[in-house]
Amino acid sequence: MTLRRPAVLLGGAVLLVLAGWLAYTTVHTLDGPWGRPGSPGTLTLTRCRTYKGGGGDPPTMSCTGTFTPDHGGSPVPGVRLNLDRVGPWAPGGIRRVWLPSASHTAYRPGGNDWLIRLGFFLFLLGCSIALIGTADGSRWARRVQVTGAVVAMSAFPVPLLVWLISLLG
After folding, report:
1. Given strand 60-69, what is the order of strands in its sheet?
2. Cα separation, 42 vs 79, whole angstroms
3. Would you say 48 and 87 are in contact if contact means Cβ atoms under 8 Å apart?
4. Which of 10, 60, 63, 79 makes the best surface tag, with the fewest CB within 10 Å?
5. 169, pLDDT greater than 60
6. Cα angle value 167/38/161 (rounded, 5°)
7. pLDDT at residue 75, as a whole number
């Protein structure tokens, strides 16, 4: 047994763990078809800053304020909300948001950020399968390697398409 096989298996396992971590954090921090993490409420704005876009990207805005949950509970000061578009705001203005537990970054429901992470998850998963398939020279292992490569390469357009669609809207 050479050192190559354990190294390849370890690399595949590391990529598989990274894919699992990405899936876990996505489900627990982003709005998606599985539901919305966190508590609904209102964010009372205290300050907003505009950031210039670079490389053809539009400007963005980041606001901070105090989050008040809908179903009671104490207000949470210093909560941040990142917005893709610059819009009007005034101190004391209110935005409907969701705040994940143990977080100080709120989000507005209905985003498709999870699609970008899905693409990266599938890419990592495919690369790990392809890498594990190279550890053995059997016919089955070659099929696994090809399957992993197909998953990885087909996942690559997902983040690209989401980004292109976001430019249109």
Report:
1. 94-99, 39-51, 60-69, 76-83, 105-106
2. 11
3. no
4. 10
5. no
6. 20
7. 92
